[in-house]
Amino acid sequence: MTVEATAGLENGTLATAAAGPRPWRVAWPDWRPLLLGLALPLLAAAGWEIVVQAGLASGRLVPPPSRVAAALWKLARSGELWPHVGATAARVGAGFVLGGAAGILSGLAASYSPLFRRLVDPALQGLRAIPSLAWVPLFLLWLGIFETSKVALIAVGVFFPVYLGVMAAVLGVDRKIVEVGRIYRLSGLALARRILLPAILPALVVALRTGLGLGWMFVVAAEYMGASEGIGYLLVDGQQLGKPDQIIAAILVFALLGKMADALLMALFKPALRWQDAYQGGR
Amino acid sequence: MSVAVEIAGLAKTYPNGLRALAGIDLSVSAGEILAIVGGSGCGKSTLLRLVAGLETPNAGSVRVGGDVVRGPHPAVGLVFQEPRLLPWLTVAENVGFGLSSLDAGERAVRVALALERVGLAEHAQAWPRELSGGQAQRAALARALVTRPQVLLLDEPFSALDALTRTALQDHLLELWAFDRPTLVLVTHDIEEALVLADRVVTLRPRPGRVDDIQTVALSRPRDRDAHNFEVHKRRLRAALNQSLAPDTLAPDSLTAAAL
Predict the structure, then answer these.
(1) CA–CA separation, B51 vs A75, rounded Å?
(2) Is B133 in the A-facing interface, judged by CB distances under 8 Å?
(3) Is residue B204 part of a domain?
């Protein structure tokens, strides 16, 4: 029975593939796992809300959801929130582009040229061992307290995972595929553009997502060190003025922005990864 | 007939000390189909990779159309044992991979013709993963032939296919060859494949690889795999192959290695 079912399934797949146009799968997301995952945090939030509303706790240090929502709504409606969002997004964007580009280029160079790798990789690995936040005072001294030092810090955070990811991915590219490029006399940039980059694209996306995640981490540090604008500033402001509802609101905005940036990155690369014939995970 | 590939005194020793080839002399005429057979480890794939310019010899030289091969040569195509299609390109883009110097219009025409010839016209926009093994290898053939190479090298191109697909593709290769009549150098471990395709069959003796025997296949094409004459050739080639696998009578391996 199982064997027959499997054979039937294979035939079905073959038939679709042979039919010419690619099957356009309309997959409705299954919301049930999402609801299950939300159950615990929603229950906790509702519980806390009830406890505070009933007067059993003041909620002064741990504000209930309603107060956080009110703070967020006030920030958004007064228009105060948007310049902060814009400033933070611009910093992460600039740092991500600079650090990402540098990471891709040096990762490619380090994997393509053994000389470059022996020359530069040990130094980079040494620098990587420094916790990136330790750069903050130096960057402030060198680059001033304004945008440049913040963007530089974010770029450093983005650079290392992208560099490492790209180098490891290129060194893992199948020699057989590279030989196809060699037979057509590709070398240097042409080989990188036509063989290596497409071959590492799935790994590159992972490296960029890791880099982007670190970018969001570092923007908090950068803005915490001194900024007059940005979501990180809202954190500092909330701390200094004793407004925990504003702090939690800012944290929520960070989470939302990070998730949106990640989704945007995935969506950008999705068309370029249609060719993938990979394990779909549990199917 | 003019000489397409001239191999002289070719030797290859790998860095680990393995002597893959020693003193190979061979000359292949333009338009000839040459098959190279031999036991595993006889260096037949290494020989092909040297002609393709993917490896550098330790001694001797390979000339293609008079040029000494120092790297992949523009007039030489190579079909690997696996299709090696680039998974991120459609079948048509894969076939056009070596035509990037042409403008898009001419490239499209050439690719369409090549796909037509291998019977994959309706799969032009498919991804490689959607092809069967035989279709993928036909696409690889199209990719190698679309640049109109003077010399096409084939490294056990059909060995991963089932028997029916294999014979079909052997016949198909001859049809494709008939269009431009490039020189074919084919490495195979299949005696029948060598005899169906080749004008001459070279048998290599292993460790280190040397030319042990060269047989001319005096059969008209298309060749009937079941004909009596074909059987005679098969028996003769099998005998040569067995002979090549027998230990060296004068200088056993260990002795040769020690003496050198």
Answers:
(1) 72
(2) no
(3) yes
CA A15 to chain centre: 38
Interface contact flag, A275 B122, Cβ < 8 Å: no
Q: With an 8 Å Cβ cutoff, are B129 and A277 in contact? A: yes
Beta carbons of B150 and B4 less than 8 angstroms apart: yes
What tens digit of pLDDT does each residue of A33-55 get?
A: 788 888 898 999 999 999 998 88
Distance between CA atoms of B60 and A283, rounded to whole angstroms?
55
Domains and CATH numbers, chain A: 64-273 (1.10.3720.10)
- Model pTM score: 0.76
Same domain, B227 and B155: yes
User: Does residue B187 contact residue B48 with C-beta atoms inside 8 Å?
Assistant: yes
Across the interface, whether the CB atoms of B86 and A177 are under 8 A apart is answered: yes
Q: Confirm or reject contact between A197 and chain B (CB < 8 A).
A: no
Question: Is A180 in Cβ contact with B84 (below 8 Å)?
Answer: yes
Q: Which domain holds residue B120?
A: 78-148
Domain assignment present for B60:
yes
Please indicate if any CB of chain B lies within 8 Å of the CB of A185: yes
Asked whether residue B253 is domain-assigned, the answer is no
Residue in the structure block whose two tokens are 């190979």: B24
Q: What is the CATH number of the domain that holds B217?
A: 3.40.50.300
Distance CA A146, CA A148 (A): 6
Same-domain status, B85 and B205: no
**A184 contacts B78? CB cut-off 8 A:** no
Report yes or no: B9 at the A interface, CB cutoff 8 Å.
Answer: no
Structure tokens, B230: 């074909």
Angstrom distances, CA of residue B27 to CA of A177, B6, B146: 30, 5, 25
CB proximity B56 to A under 8 Å:
no
Quote the CA–CA distance of B193 and B260 in Å, as a whole number. 36
Q: What is the pLDDT of residues B22-48, one digit of tens each?
A: 888 999 999 999 999 988 878 888 999
End-to-end Cα spacing for chain A: 19
User: Which of A20, A179, A201 has its CB closest to that of B54?
Assistant: A179
Residue among B71, B88, B97 minimizing CB distance to A275: B88
Q: Is residue B254 part of a domain?
A: no
Total structural domains in chain B?
2
> ipTM of the assembly?
0.85
Q: Is A80 on the interface with B (CB under 8 A)?
A: no
Task: Mark whether B119 and B183 lie in a shared domain.
Answer: no
B104 and B224 within one domain? no
